[in-house]
Amino acid sequence: MKGTRVKGWRKINNKYYYFNSQYVLQRNKIVGTKASGYYYVDSTGIRITAPAVKKAVAFVTAHSKNSQTPRQRLRYCFDALCKYPYRTYDSSIPKANRLPSYAEYMFTNHGGNCYCYASAMAYIAKVLGFESRVAAGGVTAYAGRQLSPHGWCEIKIGSVWKMCDCSMQNAHKNENLYLIERGRYPFRLRCDRIFNLTAKNGKIVWK
């Protein structure tokens, strides 16, 4: 801002940026206040207002506290999302450009299929500052049965990608399917496709 120290929201070249109380530009996190509203700013510091992102921010603020660490908030949100009931939606393996609609369906209707859980969890992790992606393949919890189409979220913790399988967690409450490595997953699993979620320059991209 031409050498002037600023705090709060500032519009620069038609993009909104947020500076904290120490005048530092905030990146890759949820920012704002209860009065002005909470928003996600990406790795370049630009506010993103895509519908699925806004709904993810609203979910996070409703189910966790600002005083918690990102890891703590992630766990609270995972537990909250797993309480949503499984509902039949579009059971076909999604294309990348459909994933936002799956997340929006889950956040709006408080229920959905495995791809809805996975997409919503990926957005939750993203607005909390984590790298996230959706995996699609097959799964079965029963010996001798064929694998059924399945989708789940993966989140990068340190250098390791770990699974957050909300829909299977909902169905198998005695298992721990939160931040579990694929090699430790208790059911037969096959991964066919990975959809990476990136947030940069004010845009969300799935590919």
TrEMBL record:
Domain Transglutaminase-like residues, every copy? 64-165
- Stored InterPro entries: Cell_wall/Cho-bd_repeat, Papain-like_cys_pep_sf, Transglutaminase-like
Q: Where are the Cell wall-binding repeats?
A: 6-25
- Any keyword Repeat? yes
* Gene3D superfamilies in UniProt: Cholin Binding (2.10.270.10)
Q: Does the keyword Membrane apply?
A: no
Key words, A-Z = Repeat
Matches recorded under SUPFAM superfamilies: Cell wall binding repeat, Cysteine proteinases
Name of the protein in question = Transglutaminase-like domain-containing protein
Q: Which organism is it from?
A: Candidatus Blautia faecavium
